[in-house]
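QA checklist item 7 of 12: single-chain prediction sanity check.
[x] sequence parsed
[x] length recorded as 317
[x] structure emitted
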Amino acid sequence: MKYSLKQVAVFDAVASQESVSAAARKLSMTQSAVSMSLSQFENVLDRPLFIRQGNRLTLSHWGRWLRPKAKRLLQDAQQIQMGLHDQQIISGNLTLCSSQTAAEHIVPGLISKIDSDFPELRIEFMVQNTDNVIQRLLNHECDLGIIEGRNDDSRIHQKKLLDDHLVVFTNPHHPFAKAGEVSLSQLKQAKWVLREVGSGTRRIFDGAVHGVIDNIDVWKVYDSVPVLKAMVQNGFYLGCLPYLDVAKEVESGLLQILPTPQLDMKRCLSFAWCKDTGENPLRDCILAEASRLVAYNERQERVVLKNLRHFSEAQSK
């Protein structure tokens, strides 16, 4: 082979940092050593891997083609090294990018379980809306994503994690809270506080009201779920979020769900990754642990609901 793993690692670091100096700091190398290694790599391949724009380097067509293959090569090399040193096979770093609902309700328990059972697996975690998760996957800025709803990009593979649904909610003092089922005309008259365009939640909501309610009055838009809930809790607005995001407030009486059978807002949370990244034992480990965690939580919820029903029946006798 005419190139080294070190040159591949340098290429990957520069691609992620878009800067030779930043890559040098990440790799604990001098800037001149990184520049020389990258130049030698490009000379061996006889292809320009970056487009130079001042101090910033962006991937060329060839660089974008090479990036996922380089990441796979580095992951395989790390697994070989760990195995030869009799260390756990599930070792290394993985970057997970998640939408807000999963970030709040699924990911903390998942990372805790991974830390306990696979201490050599390090998960770097970031929170973005669904569109940004997809973009980071395509840019190879993360290895695995959790997204809300459907994705139509043929370059992305999805695996369902769990079913979810959106609910329309308000505070108990809103006039609509005193009614039973809310009509479409009432929904049209309301002032809405919603998630930002690009979020999976907003996409599901917009799809549900399209052709059913025209010119809905979107009063405020927020990318923060706590801020959105606080606005609805303290004002005369309607909001729409996943049930998981409002369950505690509904149970405590701070928010109230409005029945809207005319709106179909079912969805699912899914893992997502680029198809061109090939096999990845760290990703497979996380997928398996997440499936077990979701199954366990669902069993626990069924037990709680069963106990609540028995308690209610006993109280009514």
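[x] summary fact logged: The chain has a mean pLDDT of 86.
[ ] second reviewer sign-off
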